[in-house]
Amino acid sequence: MAAIIESGWLYLITHFSDFQLASLGSFFLHESVFFLSGLPFIYLERAGLLSKYKIQTKNNSLAAQEKCITRLLLYHVGVNLPLMIASYPFFRFMGLRSSLPFPSWKVVLSQIIFYFILEDFVFYWGHRILHTKWLYKHVHSVHHEYATPFGLTSEYAHPAEILFLGFATIIGPAITGPHLITLWLWMVLRVLETVEAHCGYHFPWSLSNFLPIYGGADFHDYHHRLLYTKSGNYSSTFVYMDWIFGTDKGYRKLKALKRDGVGDEGKQT
User: Fold this and answer.
1) Is the model more confident about 201 or about 268?
2) d(Cα 125, Cα 30) in Å, to the nearest integer?
3) I need a labelling partner for 125 at 20 to 30 A (CA). Which of 46, 169, 179, 232 fits?
4) What is the pLDDT of residues 213-223, one digit of tens each?
5) What are the residue boundaries of the structural domains of the chain, listed by start?
């Protein structure tokens, strides 16, 4: 398997420049993973499949879903792509490379873990700032147009927010100058995580059922369906930041009520 991956990678670095791979390659990889992982949840919602695992009973209208996809394509091409192109010189300066050999799995794993921890910390505080009155009204309210989120709404946001919270995702790789394959792996994992957090379904196989510090869809769905001043659950991936700073009290209280058979936070409209 390693030989196959290296052979495929050798083809890429032989036929494409570092700039093409790091900017255009990253963009096409992001688009592929994002839409391939997010679109199935639109189908599940429209077809009514696996509805017993749907967190909210309310469904989004066809017009709302189409609006989301249209805006996403516009923002991705108009904001994400130029940002990837413009940031390449800095990443290159910090040590980003695509040449063989690959870094060891220990290096890749340690960097990915570091990226997740750092991203979650920066995202938490950035997200809390976006929930202040003025910024919520003029910027973050765009993302909260969808009180019943589905996978693709994870990146539906005001252009200013894309830049602001996008910083949390790129700061780790920016300061470590990783191998491009590490950057791509981080991008794939981060996209899959945020799509899952917004998917609107809590499955028996959801990671949050097996990893207590992971937030997941149930944790983040609560954030979307409450008023911005009372929502809490600001973290992107893990739950410990909200626990430390007490911004998950409402969520935990609701979970406790459900366990005691008093109410059901999973079926709200």
Assistant:
1) 201
2) 25
3) 179
4) 999 999 999 99
5) 17-46+59-199
